[in-house]
Amino acid sequence: MNASAELALHEVSKEYLSANGTVQALRDVSLSIVRGEFVAIIGASGCGKTTLLRLLAGLIAPTRGEVKVREHSLWHSGKRDTGAAEMIGMVFQDANLFPWYTVEENIYLPLMLQGATRQQCLEKARELCHLVGLAGFERSHTAELSGGMRQRVAIARALCLKPSILLMDEPFGSLDAMTRERMNLELQTMIATINATVVLVTHSITEAVFLADRVVALSPRPGEIRAIQPIEFPRERKLEVQADPRFNLAVQALRQALCVEGEK
Ligand SMILES: Nc1ncnc2c1ncn2[C@@H]1O[C@H](COP(=O)(O)OP(=O)(O)OP(=O)(O)O)[C@@H](O)[C@H]1O
Ligand SMILES: [Mg+2]
Question: Which of 91, 181, 245, 254 has the fewest Cβ atoms surrounding its Cβ within 10 A?
């Protein structure tokens, strides 16, 4: 399985140097993700989930260990492999949109930065608006959108350069329960359409179990892998799957893995 890994972390540790000294965010994390797999990462606030995603995206370098995308190391003597970055789209913890730009401008920005023509940009934005359920809102300003719509824009922008790997950091964290449920259903359809490998960070154990093929539970900081729970239900899933006893068993197992005695 390792041989065909799309993404891999080998004994990765990350330490940050801050004014208050060294912060160890992750310790000895090894994980291999195959093409097309959907992996969810859960863990307490501050346990290193965003750090893990930023390492996979090549936005930061590991202090120790190796990060690989399709068997290629992301870092060579402190320099990042730029080719790998093109395969990756990232949705950040806050939607990170430009409020003075329209929906379509926010979406096609990465393409424009690559030098595409205005026509190409507009066509791409139209296609992506359709995919994420924003058709008709291309010219709206993002300040006029609901939270769920803003997250759709962020997802569309992450998909603009046709990444084969999508990294999502708490994309639905700020949404109400019903919108979140709908976004979860729609996300599955979007992922199936583009056939991407996905790593999703979430605070919600049920969201993780609902969406993922495997759920990785991290310990409190420094984040170490405490459990990896396979979720056997075939994708795309319907909400009814949550009533299946196996769904609840998986949720319970992960809850236990996160709440080891002596911790909150
Ligand atoms: N640039 C940085 N400099 C110093 N410390 C940092 C930096 N980024 C993160 N940290 C620290 O590393 C630890 C892990 O942070 P990270 O953002 O990865 O956690 P998280 O699991 O994503 O938390 P949350 O669930 O609240 O988003 C925290 O203690 C944080 O304070
Ligand atoms: Mg975070």
Answer: 245
What does pLDDT average to in each consecutive run of 10 residues of the chain (264 residues)? 80 94 97 97 96 96 96 89 85 88 96 95 96 94 91 94 94 88 92 94 97 98 97 96 97 93 48
Distance separating alpha carbons of residues 60 and 70, to the nearest angstrom = 18
Q: What are phi and psi of 178, to 5 degrees?
A: -70, -40
| CA atoms of 179 and 94, how far apart (whole Å) | 16
Please give the biggest Cα pair distance in the chain.
Answer: 59
Tell me how far apart the alpha carbons of residues 96 and 55 are, in angstroms, rounded to a whole number: 19
pTM assigned to the model: 0.94
* CB of 48 shorter than 6 A to ligand 1: yes
Ligand 1 centroid vs 216 CA: distance in angstroms? Answer: 18
